[in-house]
Amino acid sequence: MIGHYTNEEIEKSDFVFISYKHTDAESVEAILSILYEKGVRFWYDVNLQGGDDWTEKAKSLIKNKNCKGVIFFNSPEAFKAEAVHNERLWTLERIAAEKSRGGSFYTFPANKDGDSNLLLLKKVFDTLDCDALKLSQQFPYERLSVITQLFNDRVIFVNSSNAEEAAEKLFSSINEKLQSVIDTDYLQMKKLETLVEEESLTLTFGICRDKPESNIPPYRLQANQAFTEHGEAYMVIDGKGYSTKPIIWRALYSENDIFVLISEYSVDTRCGGKDLNAWLEQSLLPLAFNEEERSAIRKIRLLSCEDIKAIEDQKKSSASIEELLSFPEDSESHWWIADMAMGALQKVIRKNGTVYKSGYNSRNSKSGVRPVIEIHADDLKKLKNN
Which residues touch 275 (CB under 8 Å, ≥6 apart)? Predict the structure, then answer.
């Protein structure tokens, strides 16, 4: 099924209407699939049948204020079809209405197999009965008049057997005349997903705790807070002061517009267990992130084996899972993940990036903490652009 835009979406954004004959559906949908991936916001009749319901729907869409043009997939069958004729007629009315207001309404005629309008019309008449009365019934003059008014020789000749070339020609014309129907949010989302797949999307925001600083004035230790002293950034948690540095985040995978990121390095060394989850949510989150960053973070937690499976399912680069999860040579030896082993034992990732399934005693052992955060695509784009 081609990705397409819902009624709710086109009420908020500019789009183009797709006019075609259903007998041409296979070749048309091959082209539309590519246009969708290029970000063209269009509407076409998915799961709609002909008749009065369709007639009213198509008319209202072409006359919708957010409809900025029509892509006509012209063929002999489309030239003969009454439903498509009505779409051409409503387009002429819309063009006249926009012209009276000093506006524009664009048409993008894509002629099948590179045929000119005259050749398409010849193919139409070759299939009709030459008897004058029958001819006028099968192809009324009004239909010919509308076609000649709406289409001139400046058409986009498409070869239905080469969907890529046809889509590129259409996209070039649309991008030149009507950039408002190009869904830049969708394209940016695709770009983010590609960066995730290539393991090349990294961001820097938030601050992490480094080593404790004993020279912080005692009065600073009275309350949990982040502050600057002599040009150096510090934060206080549980009565202990720490110097801080920016957190680098690496995207692991995305699912339903939610991106899952992990800190590039450990932000602390702690015992595991439930207390660690509470520390992430109640201590690290409010102190390490500003208000904008906190509102963007939907969840902060530890990595899980379920995350690792999701990474494996989406991964397209040559890097192994171990390479993605390993630490640099000069950093911590292992770090906690959410999954438990037997009893109070909690699983960790070794320095080489493999899961130590037997685990460590979460109450007694101290391992590195690499927070995982979940961020919606829209919020991620904002943080990335800041």
Answer: none
